[in-house]
Structures are given as structure tokens and as C-alpha cells.
Design brief:
Helices cover about 65% and strands about 10% of the residues of chain A. With about 300 residues, chain A is α+β, with helices and mostly antiparallel strands. In chain B, helix 4 packs across helix 7, helix 13 runs antiparallel to helix 14 and helix 13 runs parallel beside helix 15. The chains are: A alpha+beta (about 300), B alpha+beta (about 525). Chains A and B meet through helix 4, strand 5, helix 5, helix 7 and helix 8 of A and strand 18, helix 12, helix 13, helix 14 and helix 15 of B.
Chain lengths: ~300, ~525
């Protein structure tokens, strides 16, 4: 039986050559992403900004957004956003955080129910007061940093410090670019987005660790091989595995993206970008060559053991 | 790597089988499962986003608790000093303390000794070993005594208030007749109420929002209320307004005659004469006695029935009420009378509660989410299975079997833990399928390399496993750390994702280390292959 071979055996692609392009490119993209974050901003959901989120489904056919907007606008609740959410009769209503503390948020919901009356089904109502939204935001940020730190320490244990540092730079770069993506697309940024970012971190590292494992093995075996060649060999050898795994993860994410519905759409789209697109790129073009710059592999020549070729 | 003793093989298969069995109750109808023993009934709990229901987070007003404790302390100081016949002035609450000045000529040291008795060790018998007490008592300038409530005492009082509030909330929520609600404390001063299946939490929020402090006090008829409101309010009185429109002022004594704490029962009903909705109530013995005494002494005068510092009604006492029961009337609807009766029966909250977060999901959305979750899971699984078969043929089949058992085991563990499954949790399972395959891919690619390098089939397979397993461990641990952090900082649906991701990683590593190896090992032994078919 002829089996599917996406990646031919014994590829000898020179990945390391691209580092003179990939590094400046990544630096540029990172700066772009960071400035997008500061100037364009993220579309913070109510989890972090506070406020009210109501998902309604009009009972009779497609929803009349204009009419609803007018009805809600007259309530004096400040900024009210309406958008279609999936099916044409599904509407997502977002109301900014009301001044007046926790009680005011509840009053806003009551007013909306009064205005829209029985014409709609209330699929989902979420109210987050100022106290909780502040906490969720700080927990989210702290959590991200904690995860980065914990993984850094773990990698330091298992590999040398250059590997830990290299992996961290590559993967923080992943997160930065993903945040840039979220800023451009203005995708909802809420708690599930933090979940997506943390998962991207985990999976990206997955990839990087597999390559590093191979590099470490090669370093032990081939003492005289120049670093770029050694890194190239490592990446080429793990290429088949990387591609196949990325295909399977993409298939799983694709299923979620197509059939998972609007509720987790922002989560799945973010994951798709972070794991599939960016993660692959950084593992090969950033995480590996960065080891050259961090000085891995120098000083091997001074060891006296001969080449142990297979 | 390929050698398994009979015992080891049996142990592995048995473990996997038993864990998978725990997943079974989830897929059988309720009635069948209910007759099984409790430990076999453990199943996955559907999160609110899949089941529909309300999630309400309440915060106890700790400042109110603090204030109440200090006011009680002030009243205690007054009582102690009066009983000891010690003259004092300037009894006041300042910050976290009560201050009082002992008059010249009174016995200062005796007063201080008596006041020291108010301070108790925290934790009763155990408290004396920690040395913590409820009050810190200091003196100044030979005449000022300051009693400060210690931090641990305040924390303890807040904790008690939260526990008490939880019990009262339980009673109130149970009156709604809903499915088993979840009520638990969160942190030091928060209470989480989750009611599955509740679509419109408006009534629930109303029931939770009212403190329901009922008291009975005399109305001061010595001057009209409006006059007192504009001018000076007598020191023993205060102005309170009626609960319903029009908001009339009442001049009411501060002294509480009888309070809601003495009620044994409250029922909604209808007035005999006017057929208006009313709430009838009954006092316990001591309440009945107080009530009888008050009504005997004050026939012909009005008294105020006050709920949460608003006057509900102020009837005139026409005759002494000795039976200890009565009724409250005044602009009730049938529903508000019923609600008030519920609140009075459940008891007054020790401190006001504020709703700081609310998430309600309707059943329609819940069912949609489950359906979508199922479809994406099936489609994702099928795509991955087909791809694996195409890429690795027979070994792909082994990998697929291992992944299938992996998913069953995830459900098994979730059931064992009675864990909550949310929509992101389902996404987590789908993702786990994607990544579980990676472990097998690592092994197989290694095997292919070893074959290319010139090893015999059996050696290649063996080497493939041994070399790949360390990498599998390393790469999965990093994702696990991310899942652990997410579990710690996340709430609700996100936590559900962290749980399934974390469990998925553990089962993945287990199946890669054991099941896949086992299947391949037995195949090798059975077939004794000349070539590795990948």
C-alpha cells in the first residue's frame, strides 16, 4: 500500500540561511504588533472592560437591527453596540459599563428587557461589574507572565540556559504577533482569548522542544559539524514529524472553526493563527538560528573525542 | 521497550479498561444509572454554558459587618460601664475602635478591668494557644480607654457572616423550587450561586438583594415628622421613609422593640375584611412576650413596621396583642407578599449582598452549543483518523485505536472527578485529539529514521520508542504547565478548558507510553515482520 508522504525523506533544505531575513522580519513584525496594540488597541470584551453582553434571538425571522438600535439608544445607557452574531436572527448587544457601581449594571439589564419586550428570546445574559472585570484582567496578565516564567524554569532544568532563553524569545514573539493579529482583526478579547494565548504558548513550545531535543542529540554526536549545518540537519530530520503534526492539529482546529459555532469562534481563529501559522514559522526560523547567536555549540571543538559518524 | 511481561500487559489493559468504564454512565439514560451504587454513578457535570442556567457572584459588604461589630462593641461598653456604675463621657466609635473617657473621681483601674473582660480569646478553647484576642485595649492619659477590634477578630466575623449568608441564601433559593443549586463561598467575602436551568434570574436576584431586616419600633408622636425633618431630630429618634410611593417621612424611635429574628413563621395570606394580600406572622415565646408588653403599654399609639430601614406600615395599636401573632398589610401584591414571607422565613442577611457578576445562559443556546460541540468533535476525529490511516497505514490504525481509548479515558477521568464540561472544554478535547496523535507521530517518524539508518525492523521499532519517549515527555510537560496556570487563573468555561486540556495531556502520555507500545509489541510478536510497514 502506497502511504501518503507529504515530506520526502532526507530533505536537505537550508533553513538557517534565511536567518538574515527572518530575524529582521520578525523584529519588524513584533514592533508592528506592539504599536498596533498601543495605537489601535484590542477589542476588550466585557470580561475585562466590565459592562453587559446580551445575546438575543428574534422570534420572527431576521432581526431588525436598526429598530433595536433605536429602541436601545433611547434608554440613555451610554455606548450600545449591536452586531449580527452568526445566524441572521441572532444579535449580540454590548452595553458599556454603567457609572454607579454594581447596582447600575443590573438596572441596565432591566431596562433592556423592558425595551425589547417579548419580541426576542434571551439566549445569554452576562453582566460583569467593575470589581470583577479589574480582577479578571490582572489575573489574565499575571497568568501569562507566570506561565512564561514557569516554562522558562522548566526548560532551564532540561536544557542549557541558551536553549531556555531561545525558546522563550521565540515563543513570546509568537504571543506578540498573535496579539497583533487580534488587534488588526479586532477579534473579541476576553477570557477565552487568554486561554487561546496560553495554549498557543504550550503548543509552540511543544514544537520547539522537539527540535531542541534533536539539536541536543546532534550536538553530542557531531562535535566538528559547524552550527548552521548541524541546525539545518536537525530541522530537516524533524521536518516530517513537524509537518504531519501541524496537519493533524490544523484538521482538528478546522473542524472547530467550521462547526464549533460563534460562541468559540474567536478562540478557534486565534488558535489557528498562533499555532499553525506563527508557531511553525518561529520554531524553524527563529528558535533554531537564535542558538547560533546565543553561542551554542562553540567550544565543542576543544573536546578531544573524535567524530562518531554513523 | 517491546517486551511486556504478562502481568504488566494485563495491568495496562485493565487500568485503561476500568477508567473507560467510568465514562459509561454519561451515555446511558438517567433512569438506568440511578439504580447503581453511588460510586458508579459519578458522571460529568455539564457546565452552565451547555446546560443553561444562572451564575451569580455576590459580595458581602464587609464594611457593614465592620460597622455593626463596632456598634455592638459600643453598646457593650455602655452596658458594662453602667452596670459598674462608672461615670463616662465621649463614648464614640472612631475608625476601628471604640473610645471612651472615664470621668474624674470614678475608679479608672476598675473600669479598665471590667472592660478587659469584653475581650475574648479567638477560637474559644483553641484561641488561647494562639494568643489572639478579639480586642486590643489601650489607655491614654489616665482617662481615655480605647478598645480596638483586632484584624483576626474582624476576619473571623466576616467569615461567620459569609457562612450565615450562605445558609440564608440556601433557604431562600430552595423556595424557588429549582434543581439543585450550587452555593459556595469564593475567597474571603464572596458567594457563588449557580442555578442550573434557571432562565430568568430576575426573581432570584430580587430575593438575594434584600437584606430583609425586619423590626418593630414605636412612632414618636411628640412632633410631626415633617417638622423634625426640617428642624432638629430628637437624639433618640430618626427619620425613616415609607417603602412605597408617596414617600412619607416618619419620626421613629431608634430603639428596636421586637425584631424579625424572633419570628418563627411568616405566611402570605389575604386580609379578612379587605381581601388585600397581607403577610401574617408568628413570634417565638420571647418575641411574643416582648410584643405583648409593648402593645399593652402603648394602646392607642402607632408603631412602625420597618423592613430594611423603610417603613412598610405604621398601624395604631388598638388592643394588646398577647397571642404573639399578627399581620402586616400595606400595598402588597400577591407576589410581593409571597416574597416577603419567603424572606422572613429564611431570615435576615447579616450584611448586604451586592451582585458583582452575573452570567445567564438560556436552554436554547445550551443545546445549540452541545450540538455544535458534538459535530465539530466528530468531524475533527474523522479527519484525523483518515489522515493517520493514509500516512501510516496499519500503524496509523494502531495510533487511532490508542487515541480513541485516550478520549474514552478523558471522559472516564472527568466522570470520576465529577468535573464540569464546558464548550471550551469540548474544544480542549478536540485539540487533545490533534496533539495526542503527535506522540504517535514522534514514535513512528523515529522508527522510520532508524529503519533508514539500517536497523532491523524489531530493533528499529524498539529504538524508535525509546528515543521518542523522552521528547514526548518534555513537550507535553510544557503544555501542561500552561494548562495548570490557566486552571488557576480561569473561571467557569475557561477553567473547563484547562481541566480537559490537562487531563488530556496526562492520558495522552499514558497511552503513548503504554497502550501504543503494547499494541505494536503484540503485533510484532504475532507477525514477526520482515519490514516495518511505515
Amino acid at each position: 500500500m502506497r502511504l501518503l508522504r507529504i515530506v520526502p525523506d532526507d530533505t536537505k533544505f537550508d533553513f538557517m540561511r534565511f536567518r538574515r531575513i527572518s530575524f529582521p522580519l520578525s523584529a519588524l513584525l513584533s514592533i508592528l504588533a506592539i504599536s498596533l496594540y498601543f495605537f489601535h488597541g484590542l477589542n476588550f470584551g466585557i470580561d475585562f472592560k466590565g459592562g453587559t453582553l446580551i445575546e438575543v434571538q428574534s422570534k420572527a425571522g431576521a432581526a431588525d437591527l436598526a429598530k433595536m438600535r433605536a429602541a436601545l439608544g433611547a434608554l440613555g445607557l451610554g455606548e450600545v453596540q449591536l452586531q449580527q452574531f452568526g445566524a441572521p436572527n441572532d444579535v449580540l448587544i454590548r452595553i458599556a459599563e454603567q457609572p454607579g457601581g454594581e447596582v447600575a449594571q443590573q438596572q441596565a439589564v432591566t431596562k433592556v428587557r423592558g425595551a425589547l419586550g417579548n419580541e426576542v428570546d434571551y439566549r445569554r445574559v452576562e453582566v460583569v461589574g467593575p470589581r470583577v472585570s479589574g480582577e479578571l484582567l490582572s489575573y489574565g496578565v499575571v497568568g501569562l507572565m507566570l506561565a512564561i516564567l514557569a516554562i522558562l524554569i522548566y526548560l532551564w532544568f532540561r536544557f542549557e540556559w541558551q536553549f531556555a532563553l531561545g525558546a522563550m524569545i521565540a515563543n513570546v514573539h509568537d504571543i506578540v504577533l498573535t496579539i497583533g493579529f487580534m488587534s488588526i482583526t479586532q477579534i473579541d478579547f476576553d477570557l477565552t482569548s487568554i486561554a487561546a494565548l496560553l495554549t498557543i504558548l504550550g503548543y509552540s513550545l511543544n514544537d520547539t522542544v522537539v527540535i531542541y531535543d534533536r539539536i541536543r542529540e546532534m550536538l553530542r554526536r557531531y562535535r566538528k559539524l559547524p552550527m548552521p549545518d548541524l541546525l539545518n540537519a536537525s530541522v530537516n530530520q524533524t521536518l516530517s514529524r513537524s509537518v504531519i503534526t501541524h496537519v493533524t492539529v490544523s484538521l482538528a482546529l478546522l473542524a472547530l472553526l467550521l462547526f464549533g459555532g460563534q460562541a468559540i469562534h474567536s478562540f478557534t481563529a486565534t488558535m489557528m493563527f498562533g499555532v499553525v501559522l506563527v508557531g511553525t514559522y518561529t520554531s524553524v526560523f527563529i528558535a533554531s538560528p537564535i542558538l547560533i547567536y546565543l553561542g551554542v555549540g562553540t567550544g565543542r571543538d576543544s573536546l578531544s573525542s573524535p567524530d562518531r559518524d554513523k | 521497550m517491546l517486551y511486556f511481561t504478562r502481568w504488566k500487559a494485563a495491568a495496562i489493559v485493565l487500568t485503561a479498561f476500568v477508567v473507560c468504564l467510568f465514562a459509561v454512565p454519561n451515555f446511558l439514560p438517567e433512569k438506568m444509572v440511578q439504580s447503581w451504587p453511588k460510586w458508579a454513578q459519578r458522571h460529568v457535570v455539564l457546565g452552565l454554558d451547555l446546560q443553561g442556567g444562572s451564575h451569580i457572584l455576590l459580595e458581602v459588604d464587609t464594611n457593614a459587618v465592620r460597622k455593626e461589630k463596632l456598634e455592638t462593641l459600643r453598646d457593650d461598653v455602655r452596658r458594662v460601664l453602667r452596670d459598674a456604675r462608672v461615670g463616662y463621657t465621649g463614648l464614640v466609635v472612631r475608625g476601628n475602635s471604640v473610645e471612651v473617657r472615664i470621668r474624674e473621681g470614678s475608679n479608672f483601674d476598675q473600669a479598665v478591668d471590667k472592660l478587659r473582660e469584653l475581650s475574648q480569646p479567638l477560637g474559644g478553647i483553641l484561641g488561647s494557644s494562639t494568643g489572639q484576642r478579639t480586642l486590643d485595649i489601650t489607655t491614654e492619659a489616665g482617662s481615655l480607654v480605647r478598645l480596638t477590634v483586632t484584624e483576626p477578630a474582624l476576619v473571623e466575623r466576616i467569615r461567620q457572616s459569609v457562612e450565615q449568608s450562605i445558609q440564608i441564601i440556601e433557604r431562600r433559593v430552595n423556595e424557588l423550587g429549582t434543581v439543585e443549586p450550587l452555593i459556595q463561598r469564593q475567597g474571603t467575602d464572596r458567594i457563588l450561586v449557580q442555578v442550573p436551568g434557571l432562565q430568568d434570574p430576575t426573581r432570584l436576584k430580587e430575593l438575594l438583594g434584600k437584606t430583609a431586616k425586619l423590626d418593630f419600633r414605636m412612632v414618636d408622636v411628640s412632633m410631626p415628622a415633617e417638622q423634625a425633618a426640617q428642624g432638629r431630630v430628637p437624639p433618640d429618634d430618626e427619620i425613616l421613609y415609607s417603602a412605597t410611593q408617596p414617600k412619607n417621612p416618619y419620626l421613629v424611635e431608634k430603639r428596636i422593640l421586637v425584631s424579625g429574628g424572633d419570628l418563627t413563621d411568616a405566611q402570605p395570606g389575604f386580609d379578612q375584611r379587605t381581601s388585600e394580600p397581607i403577610v401574617s406572622f408568628r413570634f417565638n415565646t420571647s418575641g411574643a412576650r416582648k410584643f405583648a408588653q409593648v402593645t399593652q403599654e402603648n394602646v392607642g399609639k402607632p408603631f412602625a413596621i420597618i423592613l430594611d430601614n423603610q417603613v412598610i406600615s405604621a398601624p395604631v395599636i388598638r388592643e394588646p396583642i398577647l397571642g404573639g401573632s399578627g399581620q402586616i398589610s400595606g400595598s402588597f401584591t400577591v407576589e410581593s407578599a409571597n416574597d416577603l414571607a419567603i424572606l422572613l422565613r429564611a431570615g435576615a442577611l447579616p450584611a448586604p449582598l451586592t451582585i458583582i457578576e452575573e452570567r445567564t445562559v438560556g436552554p436554547g443556546l445550551g443545546q445549540d452549543s452541545i450540538a455544535k460541540g458534538k459535530v465539530s468533535a466528530y468531524v475533527g476525529a474523522v479527519m484525523v483518523i483518515v489522515f493517520m490511516l493514509a500516512t501510516y497505514g496499519l500503524f496509523g490504525l494502531f495510533a487511532n485505536i490508542a487515541v480513541a481509548i485516550n478520549v474514552a479515558m478523558i471522559f472516564g477521568v472527568l466522570s470520576l472527578l465529577n468535573a464540569t464540561l464546558t464548550l471550551p472544554g469540548i474544544a480542549g478535547i478536540v485539540l487533545t485529539v490533534g496533539i495526542a496523535v503527535d506522540s504517535n507521530v514522534l514514535i513512528y517518524e523515529r522508527i522510520r529514521e532508524e529503519v533508514r539508518g539500517g536497523r532491523t525492523p524489531i530493533n528499529a521499532i524498539d529504538a524508535g520508542f525509546s528515543r521518542a519517549l523522552a521528547t514526548i515527555l518534555d513537550s507535553n510537560i510544557t503544555t501542561f504547565i500552561a494548562a495548570a496556570v490557566l486552571f488557576y487563573i480561569g473561571t467557569g468555561p475557561v477553567r473547563g478548558f484547562a481541566v480537559t486540556l490537562g487531563i488530556g495531556i496526562i492520558t495522552t502520555v499514558f497511552t503513548a507510553f503504554t497502550l501504543t507500545r503494547l499494541i505494536v509489541a503484540y503485533w510484532v510478536r504475532w507477525r514477526r515482520p520482515q519490514r516495518v510497514p511505515i
